[in-house]
Amino acid sequence: MRMTAEDHVILVDDDGETVGTAPRATVHTTRTPLHLAFSCYVLDDTGNLLVTRRSLAKTAWPGVWTNSFCGHPRIGETFEEAIDRYAEHELGVAVSEIRCVLPEFRYRAVDASGVVENEICPVYSANLRGTVRPRAAEVIDWRWVPFGEIAEVVRLAPWTVSPWMAAQVPDLAAVLARIRTSLGTDECSEESTDGPASTGERTAIGALS
User: Fold this and answer.
1) Is 119 marked within a binding site?
2) What is the domain extent for residue 44?
3) b or e along 36-69 (b: 16 or more beta carbons within 10 Å of the residue's beta carbon)?
4) What dihedral angle (degrees, nearest 10) is formed by the CA atoms of 192, 198, 200, 206?
5) Chief subcellular site (predicted)?
6) 200 lies in a domain?
């Protein structure tokens, strides 16, 4: 699946209900509307986390270190399909074992230039398949780092990473520990939460659930 000029983001209200779409290329401004997104944390076979440095050409938080990749699902696309699409586009890899780990994450942040991120943004983990070959327009550097070291960086110097990563990592530690010991479940399953974004195979149309 290719990124195209017609790419869009799904606009939502405070309850996560779809209210429209907007062009992905122009949605992020100083008045960014609330929209649907995801964050993905890619792990290797030993539990190391892939962290990436955002391209200097990015509209928001250029050059900042962050989680493996983020993205926006399209209308009619499941989160898993969107994750597959972005993994190939940004990192040149396939991923497997996609799990929803923080189903209700939401944030709003403003970067130094005034550009706003304003997202309902469930967080996923995934396992790597293949060799990382990042697209230069998206990622300018990357590292495999033990998750514990990343958690310590976030604790001591949260300003050195993206604001969404700084907010997500403290809540990820226990969930990723369960995954590494093969005890993890999809935190977005209906058994895990009664709130919005409550199913693992969700489609980006209508309500989040």
Assistant:
1) yes
2) 8-177
3) bbbbbbbbeeeebbbbbbbbeebebbbebbbbbb
4) 180
5) cytoplasm
6) no
Position 23, amino acid: P
Count of the separate structural domains present in the chain: 1
Residue positions annotated with a catalytic role: 70, 119
- Two tokens, residue 143: 């590292």
Annotated binding residue 35: yes
Structure confidence by residue, pLDDT tens digits, 17-47: 999 999 998 999 999 999 999 999 999 888 8
Question: Tokens in use for 88?
Answer: 């190939």
Q: Is 72 annotated as a binding residue?
A: yes
Give the DSSP per-residue string, 30-50: TTPPPEE-EEEEEE-TTSEEE
SS3 label, residue 126: strand
- Gyration radius from the chain CA atoms: 16
- 28 labelled ligand-binding: yes
- In this structure, the strands spanning 18-23 and 35-36 are unpaired
Q: Are 8 and 22 in contact (CB under 8 A)?
A: yes
pLDDT one-digit tens code per residue, 63-87: 999 999 999 999 999 999 999 999 9
Rounded to whole angstroms, the Cα distance separating 133 from 100 reads: 24
Question: And the tokens for 1?
Answer: 């699946």
Six-digit token pair at 112? Answer: 């130094």
Q: CB–CB of 28/110 below 8 Å?
A: no
The domain that holds 86 is classified in CATH as 3.90.79.10
The Cα–Cα gap between 155 and 152 comes to: 5
